[in-house]
Amino acid sequence: MDNLSIFLWFVVSLICFILVSFKKRYSYWKDRGAAYVEPTIPLGNLPLLKVHFKDTTDPIYKQKKPGAPFMGAYFFRTPVVIATDLDFIQRVLVKDFSSFNGRGIYINEKDDPLSENMFSLDGDKWKSLRAKFSPVFTSGKMKFMFTTVVDVADRLNSTLSETLKAKSEVEVRDLLARFTTDVIGTCAFGIECDTLKNPNSKFRHYGSKIFEEPLHGPLMGLLMIQYPNFARKLRLRLVQKEVEDFFMDLVRGTIDYREQNNIRQNDFMDLLIQLKNGEFLDGHSQKLGRITFGEIVAQAYLFFLAGFETSSSVMVFSLYELALNPDIQEKARQEAETILSKYEGKLTYEAVKEAEYLDQIISESLRKYPVAVNLIRQAIRDYPVPGTKVIIEKGTTVLIPVYSIHHDPEIFHSPDVFNPDRFAPEQIKARHPVSFLGFGEGPRNCIGLRFGRMESKIGLITLLKNYQFKPCSKTSIPMVFAEGKPILTPKFGVYLQVEKL
Fold it and tell me: In whole angstroms, what is the distance from residue 250 CA to residue 318 CA?
């Protein structure tokens, strides 16, 4: 047998082995009697084309079977659970949380220290940090920072007013990202970023870099989650090194300056320093244990990331829908004006709390445009699925397709219609408790949801009482999302016609 024949025999044998291996692996859900979507070699149920992360799970969700708690699927060779039943989802997130308290997100403490943040951590490390940081987001702490957010909102008003002197069509996504960057820079770090005046500030530069220039696309991200040990051997990281250096230097400089000059500012950084030094948090009678400098930086990075991007997205999509629905916009404006008249025109903490219709607008915006399009959980032990003979094995990833649930016509009638009345109290009571997952649910819900709602409401009230928003020739109708981004991002920005009232 010549060398060519041997080589061809080897190649054919290898291909046959790979095909048999895939076929055997792809019988996983069928062998367990679970409802599943037929996979194809080698991607499983992942799409061939570059799509948004929501589009990896939405086609699977739409094939859900009546009575089945989930659809079995495959990401490459790995079996995954795509949750489709709300009762099952409630079990995963709340009732049986102890079996699904992990996220299984890739962490590399050695090469990528910012990845060791509360969002990504699992097990005892997550539990300990969550307990320590929960007091940071109480209503009392929100009141401390309220005035700071209002001051930044006033600067937002001034900036937009100046912008309108030169043009009436405004790209509001960048404007609102600068607003929330200034808010989180001041509240988390006590630093006047002044991004509203200077769009090229360092804070804005690095905030944009995190989302606009991710190191890896969605498929590579999935591979890192499924093969974390291999990824760590390759020293793969999620956060750019220059972003890490910026936050390390920023936090170190802030802590050193405050401690050397005995400065207290009643912001997030104050509370982090108290935890670092093992002190009693203001208003709490128990010590919560020390945190390390590395843990401070990782959490400060997370606060910045969540605080500027999620809140700006909520406001952007809210303004977009208000521009397309002038009747809803006017109703929100009238509510704001009525409430402000009770408080002598001043935007107070109590006034913002009374803006219930604006709360409904924010919730409806998060329903139609959820920041997290999928929630990720991981089974930390074998889990017998109630009412079935199926066992979800330890280590299996469970994906909860938030975008798909929020756009399911069986749950939300006419889901493409923007209707804040869906979140009137009686409507909420009539729906399943986990039909809306804008802030997640259960013990791993968004820890900063109070701050996020407060920040968004202050920004929107400030804008609505001073300006009217309309679609213009550059407005994308319908909204088009950028592929390859971890969150819902308008592909072409959000341009609106803005008129001063």
Answer: 32
Closest to 378 (Cα-Cα) out of 13, 181, 100:
100
Q: Which of 13-22, 54-63, 175-184 has the lowest mean pLDDT?
A: 13-22
Residue range 53-70: average pLDDT?
93
Cα–Cα distance measured from residue 91 to residue 87, given in angstroms and rounded to the nearest whole number: 6
Q: Rounded to whole angstroms, how far apart are CA atoms 100 and 26?
A: 24
pLDDT of residue 14: 65
The answer to whether 464 and 172 have CB atoms below 8 angstroms apart is no
Side-chain half-sphere exposure of 136, counting CA atoms within 13 A:
26
Do residues 163 and 176 lie in contact, with contact meaning Cβ atoms separated by under 8 Å? no
Check which CATH number belongs to the domain holding 121 and give it.
1.10.630.10
Q: Is residue 18 part of a domain?
A: no
What is the C-alpha to C-alpha distance for residues 26 and 47, in angstroms, rounded to an integer? 16
Average pLDDT score over the chain: 88
The residue behind tokens 């009230």 is: 461
pTM over 0.85: yes
484: left (phi over 0), alpha (psi -120 to 50) or beta: left
Residue 52: inside a domain: yes
Q: Is residue 362 part of a domain?
A: yes
- pLDDT tens by residue, 417-447: 999 999 999 999 999 999 999 999 999 998 8
Look at the chain and report how many structural domains it folds into: 1
**Structure token digits, residue 248:** 């390390």
Cβ neighbors of 259 (< 8 A, separation 6 or more) are 273
Comparing CA positions, the residue from 299, 297, 270 lying closest to residue 121 is: 299
pLDDT of residue 409: 97
Tell which residue, 152, 141, 90, 31, has the closest CA to residue 447.
141
Residues in the chain: 501
- Domain hosting 485: range is 25-500
For residue 491, give the H/E element and its range.
none
Whether residue 4 lies inside any domain: the answer is no
Rounded to whole angstroms, the maximal C-alpha distance in the chain is 95
The answer to the question of whether 16 is labelled as a binding residue is no
Q: What percent of the chain has pLDDT over 90?
A: 51
Residue recorded with tokens 């489709």 = 84
